[in-house]
Amino acid sequence: MGPLAALGIASFGPLDLHPSSPSYGFITSTAKPGWRNVDLAGPFRRALGVPVSIDTDVNGAALGGGSGGGGGCPT
Question: Is 47's pLDDT higher than 90?
Fold first, then answer.
């Protein structure tokens, strides 16, 4: 394996998924205690120094399952 090139995060939401937004990567107006307006992607981007992408947990599961990475429906 080589060095880490990028990171993808799949999370519950609602999320700000607009890369041009100042709050991109934030969990926004969730009802989950302690998670409202939390910058989820930023700390990873700063700590790892690589591009970070974020999407919903549902989309992440679909992408993982569709790529054969597990977590999808068995065939």
Answer: yes
